[in-house]
Structure formats: structure tokens, C-alpha cells
Design goal:
Strand order of the largest sheet: 1-3-2-6-8-7
Structural class: alpha/beta
CATH superfamily: Uracil-DNA glycosylase-like domain
Number of domains: 1
Oligomer: single chain
Mean pLDDT: 94
Strand content: 15-25%
Shape: globular
CATH class: Alpha Beta
CATH architecture: 3-Layer(aba) Sandwich
Order of helices and strands: HEEHHEEEHEHHEEHH
Number of strands: 8
Radius of gyration: 16 Å
Low-confidence stretches: none
Number of helices: 8
Helix content: 40-55%
Bound molecules: uracil
Distance between the termini: 35 Å
Length: 194
């Protein structure tokens, strides 16, 4: 089975397992050396059927420009591939909500299989949720491990994990901006082999 076929099969299994959810699957170059993993799709992603569009996409593009990288050349996915939402008591409309530990766990195996099909060299996690998914450590905190490269194994295959803050968290916490840009510089040197 080709890489593309394996991925399609996995995504079919995912759709069956999570039937009825607002699903957005991974997107980009399946031969990329870099896999970017976000948390979960939001409203815009569901509407357009692609991860990281709308405001999140704008942040992501800014992030990629620091790395001198084009979006189409990397693969982008989410730790949880459906929208996590709840009804807002204030507006009566759906709003995003954080992932539960059970939801992260239920999605982990799919994510690991996706990684073992794509086989990137570098796994860049954005924020706490994908960090927890990848490490399987629910006490892991991005504040403690961001910007440091770490060798990891998933189903006996070796990868290099580079945890980053979620680009959206920089908007809410401007003091993180410098730290984040320093992490991006490090990542840029690593992926360019310098
Ligand atoms: N959009 C995504 O697809 N993932 C995120 O983590 C945030 C926005």
C-alpha cells in the first residue's frame, strides 16, 4: 500500500470511529521532513475542511515565514481531529472548549499511526495538548520543555520532538513573544541543519 493509501485508510477508520463529529483531517505534503501538530480544529477549520485556516492560519503563516517555509511543503495535523465545542451559556452559540484527558487518550493511537505513515524527521507540537499526546505524559507542560529538541520513539521508530507554544497563546500573552521567537530561531537552525 502506498503512503497515500495508508493515510486514506487510517482517515477512513478515524471517520468511522468518530462518526457524527465535525472532523478535519491532516493536510499538506506527506513526504515532509516536518510534521506540525496542533490541538484541534475550530469553527473556521470545520467550515473549510482544513486545519489552521482563519485567524489560526494567519498565525501559522507568520510562524512559517520565520522558518522560511511554505505551508504546502509541510504536513499539518491536529492531536484531536474534530471540533471540541460546547454551548456558551452567554451567547447560546457553540464555542471551543479544552480537550479532556479521555479525548486525548482516545485519539493518541490514531495520531501515532498517522506519524508512522508520514515518517517525518521532526515533530513540532504546538501547545500542551499535542505535547501530552506525543509523550503520553499528562503532566507534561509546554512551559518546561519548549524550545528543546528531544529524541523520541513511537512504535519503535525514532523522531525528533520540538515542542513549541501554540501560536494563539502568543496573542493572549505578549510576554511570550520573545521566548517564542527565540524558539523559532532554534528550530530554524535545526531544520536547516546548521
Ligand atoms: N486550528 C487548528 O487546526 N488547530 C489548532 O490547534 C488551532 C486552530
Amino acid at each position: 500500500m502506498s503512503k497515500q493509501e495508508s493515510l486514506e485508510k487510517l482517515y477512513d477508520d478515524y471517520r468511522n470511529h468518530f462518526e457524527g463529529k465535525e472532523i478535519v483531517l491532516g493536510d499538506g505534503s506527506i513526504d515532509s521532513m516536518i510534521l506540525l501538530i496542533g490541538e484541534a480544529p475550530g469553527k473556521d477549520e470545520v467550515r473549510l475542511g482544513r486545519p489552521f485556516v482563519g485567524m489560526a492560519g494567519k498565525n501559522l503563516n507568520e510562524f512559517l515565514s520565520h522558518l522560511n517555509m511554505e505551508r504546502e511543503k509541510i504536513y499539518i495535523t491536529n492531536a484531536i481531529k474534530y471540533r471540541l465545542s460546547e454551548v456558551s451559556p452567554q451567547t447560546g452559540r457553540l464555542k471551543n472548549r479544552p480537550a479532556t484527558k479521555e479525548e486525548i487518550k482516545e485519539n493518541m493511537d490514531f495520531l501515532y499511526k498517522e506519524i508512522n505513515i508520514i515518517m517525518p524527521k521532526y515533530i513540532v507540537t504546538l501547545g500542551n495538548v499535542p505535547l501530552k499526546s506525543i509523550t503520553g505524559d499528562f503532566n507534561a507542560s509546554i512551559g518546561a520543555v519548549h524550545g528543546e529538541i528531544k529524541q523520541i520513539y513511537i512504535y519503535n521508530e525514532e523522531f525528533f520532538l520540538f515542542p513549541l507554544y501554540h501560536p494563539a497563546s502568543i496573542i493572549y500573552n505578549r510576554s511570550l513573544k520573545e521566548v517564542y521567537e527565540e524558539d523559532l530561531r532554534k528550530l530554524s537552525l535545526i531544520v536547516s541543519g546548521k
